[in-house]
Write a structure and sequence with these properties.
By secondary structure, this protein is α+β, with helices and mostly antiparallel strands. The protein has two domains: 6-94; 100-163, bsu07140 like domains (CRO Repressor, 2-Layer Sandwich). The protein is 53% helix and 10% strand. It has a four-stranded antiparallel β-sheet. Helix 1 packs parallel to helix 3 and helix 2 (40-58) runs antiparallel to helix 3 (64-87). It is elongated and about 65 Å long. It starts with 5 loop residues before the first helix and ends in a 21-residue tail after the last strand.
């Protein structure tokens, strides 16, 4: 239970070093986007890479070459989908969600909160983490595609350009 064989420990060390080195090389060639946290799709790829690396390390049933091929396949698929989503809007719509406006000019947007399964308390907590104590100091709170909150402070000029792609943001002409 606590120890099987020295050979098993040696396998973990050798395979771990080789798999880790290969993963670093693969990620270096695939670019920064492979491990970004831009949206849910990117998170899934990151978790899958970690899970695959753990399986390579701990499962004697998975040969190093098979594990490395699995890592390479995940990275290649992520690269392909990211490449396609940058070039084809329909692919982008399938893979990525849109940022959603949750709070705007002093008002919690209840339908947006419900649809995104976010409570007003979570919005206020996000505002507090930015060191803001007055809701009147906040122009907008946006739930980003990666699940994080963006807080825009109230300024003399409306923040329309930063909000152009935000779901349910009222157009300036409205």
């Amino acid at each position: 239970m606590f120890f099987d064989t020295w050979q098993g420990l040696g396998r973990v060390i050798v395979v771990g070093v080789l798999a880790y080195a290969a993963l670093v090389i693969f990620l270096r060639f695939s670019g920064k986007r492979t491990l970004s946290k831009m949206n849910a799709f990117d998170l899934v790829v990151t978790v899958a890479l970690g899970s695959t690396l753990a399986t390579i390390l701990l499962s004697k049933d998975v040969a190093l070459a098979e594990g490395l091929l699995a890592l390479l396949l995940l990275i290649a698929l992520q690269f392909t989908v990211a490449w396609l989503s940058v070039r084809f809007p329909t692919i982008q719509q399938l893979v990525k969600s849109e940022p959603t406006l949750l709070f705007h000019q002093g008002q919690m947007l209840q339908s947006a909160l419900r649809s995104q399964r976010v409570t007003p308390e979570e919005v206020r907590a996000a505002i507090r983490t930015q060191g803001i104590s007055q809701m009147s100091e906040v122009e907008a709170v946006i739930l980003e595609t990666d699940g994080s909150f963006s807080i825009l402070r109230t300024t003399a000029q409306p923040a329309t350009t930063a909000l152009n792609d935000v779901n349910n943001y009222p157009s300036p002409s409205a």
